Amino acid sequence: MARESHVRFLSALSTALLATLLPLTVRSTARHAFGDTTRSARWDSRHAVKEAFNDLLIEEEDYKTLRDSIDTNDAFDAMGLAARLEKHDLLEFRRLASHLYGKAAKWDRSISLAKEDKLFKDAITTAAVSNSTDVAEELLRYFSDIGSRECFVALLFAAFDLIRPDVAEELSWRHSFHDTYMPYRLQVERSRADQIASLAKKLEELSSKTVAKEEEENSQPMLGLMPQTLALGYY
């Protein structure tokens, strides 16, 4: 089995390389300019190798190696691969499709796929890294609508800086999540208190510096009047 896979990979790789390098060789000869063509050939050859390798991993259903390959080398059509994987029969390959959309900042599509397969942990992670209040709050509404208290609270803490407290409290009230919501609310109150204390300290320090500066300025002699005073002494 391993030998057959190796042979198929080499065959696919050889075909891809030939299809890529032959046209480039012709262009380089015709143009007599090797700089840009060489760089293009280098990228195209890497792209061909990557595509052939990904094809083999999909055929062998080796989703773990494919994920490592995706995360360590970007010389492939990411969106093309994502569109292909989201239709795969195996859950882990559809999960990779969601991962690819997330890497491309296509947050809504990534989360949509995760929700379809009930990969709620992945959806929460994507919402948190999106740095988007709209994305995070939309997912929070989804969790409240389906009655998932655990996911609701998990998202509140994972996207703590993205979700507006009033939105969280409203959804909690509407869906009777009071007990589940309370730890988050206490954390919000604590954060607010810490922020107010920090701001008060900064204002106090600024006020002290201002007073000290004014006292220093007032303690200095008015040198500008000395020449006039001395001058008046001669008359």
UniProtKB/TrEMBL annotation:
Domain of life: Eukaryota
GO MF annotations, alphabetized: clathrin light chain binding
Keyword Protease: no
Placement of CHCR repeats on the sequence: 1-152
Signal peptide (from-to): 1-28
One of the GO biological process terms: Golgi to endosome transport
Keywords: Signal
SMART domains: CLH (SM00299)
Keyword Signal: yes
GO CC terms of this entry: actin cortical patch; clathrin complex; cytosol
UniProt cross-references to InterPro entries, sorted A to Z: ARM-type_fold, CHCR, Clathrin_H-chain/VPS_repeat, TPR-like_helical_dom_sf
UniProt cross-references to Pfam families, sorted A to Z: Clathrin
Name of the protein in its database record: FGENESH: predicted gene_5.178 protein
Source organism per UniProt: Rhodotorula toruloides
